[in-house]
Amino acid sequence: MKGLDTNVLIRYLVKDDKKQAERASTCIRKATANGESCFINHIVLCELVWVLESAYGYTKEEIAEVLEKMLITKQFEIELKDIVRQTIYDYMQGSGDIADYLIGRINHIKGCDVTATFDHALKNNPSFIVLD
User: Fold this and answer.
1) In whole angstroms, what is the distance from residue 39 CA to residue 130 CA?
2) pLDDT in tens, 97-127
3) Most exposed residue of 2, 61, 114, 127, measured as fewest CB within 10 angstroms of its CB?
4) Residue 53 to residue 23: CA distance in whole angstroms
5) Rounded distance between C-alpha atoms, residue 4 and residue 24, angstroms
């Protein structure tokens, strides 16, 4: 298995730098041709969303679509795939950041009843308690 960094994944998905996009695509093709998958961890997913929002102006809907496609792409092995799927749902329903919802979901599976935060965008999500 090969791990992918955010910059490789961005080039692969956005293709804004032709040379780097081709190198990223070649890396992923070679890995899968050898029977390997490309691992994408939660930090890379959070960075990916941040870059797509801030640098490329992607909407929530566009980001969710990218993430959903990645979840079903056999070349990619996504850390805790089911948790990421639930996180995408939370992200689409709420007003928080994807990283916040991922934190809440991971904390929940690790035994936390709620996650304390100061982020008022999470006030309507039962996984969080907003400290005033």
Assistant:
1) 33
2) 999 999 999 999 999 999 999 999 999 999 9
3) 61
4) 24
5) 9
